[in-house]
């Protein structure tokens, strides 16, 4: 296997905090590596070093000659004045430049310019690549190629950056939380795309299904050291447990030996022989092993919740639209005590708006929401982190409560509760600006649960949290008496937590499916929802597939992407037809030598296949137009 990138003996500190020290990494061709660790232990810092956007404090990096690296960071920095197509086709590659010129030519309406662009596409065999590009953009719901980056939401910018990263055809993909801001359908597509391709990947993600199905190597940062496991996430969980168990056994043996050696040293005569001096020196090694600590701390979030009455939240005929887009229509439901509801649907289908209406932060167009008298709501938001960087974690939590009561009867001070959340005293009194993104998320989670709610709304709580914190949060949500309504794209999290799911199809209907996400994904209902359209009811007298297809086509309208595709086909087909005519004239001229005749014949056959494919697609779209 070809070695792509090597890091030798690298170390990194953040201020006074040591992230990792003396670690070695080798990334080889076709490896798919995931990096896991607790928040604040240097995952993003390591990715930045490998991608070349940061340097280690010590150690060295080397790489294969002309290695092309594409990096998707957590914090996206795109030029707001660029269009989407400019941001996506950022690489100066012949094929990419040809596609860029081709797309520009379609806007001019100049046949001569378009003909030159077509010829260039043909000469570089760029058509297949353009189809692949459009597939990637479509799967990530990027349709308006001329839209300015500055008008996009944070999630849309992340998807544009991801598309550009995938399209750039790198040798090595470095991805930092690639599933953030993707809906479940997009994640499943990306999972399949990365699994199927012969590509080399180094990434950080908290999505455990994604880890299990994509990666063949797991690397873990633990107490500044790097451990490598040659297998997927399930293998890592098993072998990590073995490593911790063996380490605990070794420490226990060293501690027993240290007690024996301490007793011997106390009784040893002052006149030391060479042999006794050797034993004393060896005692220091034993003492060092015996003094090792295993940072296997687990959070316990058994927070007492206020008693919840019989009435929780009752919804009657809830309706909400934005402009001409209906998100929820005539939806009614009564929440019960302690139930766990997951919400799924494509981006923009109304999931966050629904939570905002339940929380009283957004007015519905019609309908009624009745909240029980004993209900105490806490709302964990996607954009809820608004801490002042010049404040300290201890000051933040003390504003909420001086103490918190746990289910086990203990009462913790604000400082003690922060310690439970893996914020040691020195970190509690440090400034928030020194925390990593994941540590800020953990602090935010702490402030939400400190409110001791009996109704908890959570909008994408898994973003930027490490796997260890997620495992504990899952246990808390399973054990809590609170009613929980959660929006999440983390399939593992949803499968473990929820009793049933609300499915938002984006055109106003909300389905209540009795099961977790995977059960919904495997059901027939999922097939009806993947296009965000309600299936047409057909009479059951005599099933006729042809008539059903016709009825569906009459009801379904062209999507934005399909309209754009249809318009481009209407421009392309006349040009391709003209090119076919020119080739046919050349073939019939009798002026071509044998070699040219064979070459032109092959070109003519390929062109006919392209025209036929595009004409069929044009006919399909014209029936819906």
What would you say this structure looks like, in words?
With 625 residues, this protein is α/β, with parallel strands linked by helices. Among the domains are: 249-290; 313-529, 3-Layer(aba) Sandwich (Rossmann fold), CATH 3.40.50; 560-624. Helices cover 45% and strands 19% of the residues. It is built from 22 helices and 20 strands. Strands 5-6-7-3-8-9 form a six-stranded mixed sheet, with helices on both faces. The longest helix has 35 residues, at 233-267. It is globular, with a radius of gyration of 30 Å.
Summarize the structure.
This protein is α/β, with parallel strands linked by helices. Helix content is 45%, strand content 19%.
Task: For the structure shown, list the relevant keywords.
625 residues; alpha/beta; Rossmann fold; 6-stranded mixed beta sheet; 22 helices; 19% strand
Strand order of the largest sheet: 5-6-7-3-8-9
Number of distinct helices: 22
CATH first level of the domain at 313-529: which class? Alpha Beta
Estimate the strand proportion.
Answer: 15-25%
Query: Which structural category fits the helices and strands?
Result: alpha/beta
Nearest-integer average pLDDT: 82
Helicity range:
40-55%
Please name the CATH architecture of the domain at 313-529. 3-Layer(aba) Sandwich
| Oligomeric nature of the chains | single chain
How would you name the CATH homologous superfamily of the domain at 313-529? P-loop containing nucleotide triphosphate hydrolases
Number of strands: 20
Tell me the span between the first and last alpha carbons: 51 Å
CATH topological fold name of the domain at 313-529: Rossmann fold
Question: Shape from CA axes?
Answer: globular
Radius of gyration: 30 Å
Largest sheet: 6 strands, mixed
Low-confidence stretches: 271-275, 532-556
């Amino acid at each position: 296997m070809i070695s792509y990138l090597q890091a030798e003996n690298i170390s990194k500190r953040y201020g006074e905090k040591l992230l990792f020290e003396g670690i070695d990494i080798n990334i080889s061709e076709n490896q798919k590596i995931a990096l896991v660790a607790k928040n604040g232990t240097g995952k993003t810092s390591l990715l930045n070093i490998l991608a070349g956007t940061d340097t280690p404090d010590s150690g060295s990096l080397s790489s294969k000659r002309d290695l092309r690296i594409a990096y998707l960071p957590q914090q996206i920095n795109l030029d707001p004045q660029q269009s989407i197509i400019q941001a996506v086709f950022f690489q100066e590659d012949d094929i990419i430049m040809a596609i860029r010129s081709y797309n520009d030519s379609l806007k001019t309406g100049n046949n001569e310019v378009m003909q030159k662009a077509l010829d260039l596409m043909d000469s570089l065999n760029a058509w297949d690549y353009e189809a692949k590009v459009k597939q990637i953009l479509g799967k990530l719901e990027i349709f308006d190629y001329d839209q300015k980056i500055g008008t996009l939401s944070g999630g849309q910018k992340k998807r544009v950056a991801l598309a550009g990263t995938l399209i750039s055809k790198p040798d090595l993909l470095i991805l930092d939380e690639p599933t953030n801001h993707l809906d479940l359908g997009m994640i499943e597509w990306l999972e399949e795309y990365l699994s199927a391709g012969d590509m080399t990947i180094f990434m950080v993600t908290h999505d455990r299904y994604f880890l299990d199905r994509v990666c063949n190597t797991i690397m873990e940062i633990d107490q500044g050291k790097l451990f490598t496991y040659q297998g997927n996430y399930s293998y890592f969980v098993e072998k990590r447990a073995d490593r911790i168990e063996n380490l605990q056994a070794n420490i226990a043996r060293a501690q027993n030996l240290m007690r024996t050696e301490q007793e011997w040293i106390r009784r040893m005569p002052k006149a030391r022989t060479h042999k006794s001096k050797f034993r004393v020196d060896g005692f220091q090694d034993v003492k060092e092993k015996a003094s090792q600590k295993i940072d296997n701390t687990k959070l316990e979030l058994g927070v007492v919740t206020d008693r919840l009455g019989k009435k929780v939240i009752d919804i009657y005929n809830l309706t909400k639209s934005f402009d001409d887009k209906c998100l929820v229509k005539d939806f009614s439901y009564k929440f019960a005590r302690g139930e766990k509801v997951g919400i799924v649907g494509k981006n923009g289908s109304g999931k966050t708006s629904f939570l905002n209406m339940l929380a009283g932060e957004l007015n519905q167009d019609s309908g009624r929401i009745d909240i029980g008298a004993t209900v105490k709501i806490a709302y964990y938001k996607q954009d809820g982190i608004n801490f002042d960087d010049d404040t300290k974690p201890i000051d933040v939590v003390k504003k909420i409560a001086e103490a918190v009561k746990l289910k086990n009867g203990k009462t913790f001070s604000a400082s003690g509760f922060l310690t439970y959340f893996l914020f040691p005293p020195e970190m509690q009194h440090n400034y928030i600006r020194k925390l990593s993104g994941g540590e800020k998320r953990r602090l935010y989670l702490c402030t939400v649960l400190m409110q001791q709610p009996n109704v908890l709304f959570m909008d994408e709580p898994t973003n930027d949290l490490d796997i260890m914190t997620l495992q504990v949060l899952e246990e808390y949500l399973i054990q809590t008496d609170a009613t929980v309504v959660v929006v999440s794209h983390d399939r593992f999290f949803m499968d473990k937590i929820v009793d049933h799911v609300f499915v938002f199809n984006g055109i106003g209907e909300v389905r209540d499916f009795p099961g977790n996400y995977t059960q919904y994904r495997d059901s027939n209902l999922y097939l009806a929802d993947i296009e965000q359209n309600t299936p047409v009811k057909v009479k059951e007298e005599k099933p006729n597939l042809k008539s059903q297809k016709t009825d569906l086509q009459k009801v379904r309208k062209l999507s934005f992407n399909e309209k754009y595709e249809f318009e481009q086909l209407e421009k392309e087909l006349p040009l391709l037809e003209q090119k076919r005519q020119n080739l046919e004239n050349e073939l019939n001229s009798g002026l071509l030598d044998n070699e040219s005749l064979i070459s032109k014949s092959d070109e003519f056959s390929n062109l006919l296949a392209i025209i036929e494919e595009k004409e069929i697609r044009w006919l399909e779209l014209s029936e819906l137009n």
